[in-house]
Design a protein that fits this description.
Layout: H1 2-25, H2 27-36, E1 49-52, H3 57-69, E2 76-79, H4 85-89, H5 96-106, E3 114-117, H6 123-136, E4 141-147, H7 151-162, E5 168-174, H8 188-207
Parallel strand pairs: 1-2, 1-4, 2-3, 4-5
Helix pairs in contact: 3-5, 6-7
């Protein structure tokens, strides 16, 4: 009996070691793939409006200005009713929506081309608010803009909420200035972002 177990280990151990060597050799490709799975970008050409989701106002606002300049949509709306803790410390109660608008204007967007729509404290709430707003303005196609690693989860939430509405939802992936999406594991912010996004993806799958 002991000899059989020993022979079994003689087979299993080399195979396990070989798999570990292969995984180590391919670690960068695997890590890159884990990040890429979170990204969805429709490279939108034209829409009735762009909706800039709350959070990361500098990155998202700047990218919104770029899309507006390219003529992707005639107008953008920035969502998010949360207040930045940093701005609170400065005594300025600005919502995420307002901060995104400020960033877009500083990046070159005309002041009237992006407007605050301070609704929602979560992706789910924002999807509800954007659906109502898009229907109110008579939009047929909208672009939902968020940070790169958020896009796949955001797309699932929005498309589920917009099902049957007749409004086509496209996604725009704003690059982050805090990490390199192709090498996210090399920075603390990248590690936190990918880890948190997989946790959120599981949470949204179970709750919604």
């Amino acid at each position: 009996m002991k000899r059989r177990r020993f022979r079994g280990w003689r087979v299993v151990l080399p195979v396990a070691l070989l798999l570990l060597v292969i995984a180590w050799a391919a670690r960068y490709r695997i890590l890159h793939g884990l990040g890429a799975l979170l990204i969805e970008d429709d490279a939108p050409a034209h829409a009735d409006a762009i909706y800039v989701l709350g959070g990361a106002p500098f990155d998202r606002g700047t990218y919104a200005a770029d899309l507006l300049e390219r003529g992707v949509a005639p107008i953008a709306y920035a969502t998010g009713s949360n207040h930045s803790s940093i701005m609170k410390a400065e005594g300025r109660l600005l919502t995420e929506a307002q901060l995104s608008c400020h960033a877009a204007v500083r990046a070159g967007a005309p002041a009237g081309s992006i407007l605050p729509y301070p609704y929602g404290t979560s992706t789910f709430e924002e999807a509800q608010g954007v659906l109502y707003h898009a229907q109110r303005i008579g939009a047929d196609t909208i672009v939902v803009l968020t940070t790169d690693f958020h896009t796949r989860r955001v797309g699932k939430v929005f498309r589920k909420r917009f099902a049957g509405s007749g409004i086509h939802v496209l996604l725009a992936s704003a690059p982050s200035t805090e990490y390199d999406a192709d090498r996210w594991w090399e920075s603390e912010q990248g590690l936190l972002m990918v880890n948190n996004e997989y946790v959120k993806t599981l949470f949204y799958a179970l709750k919604y």
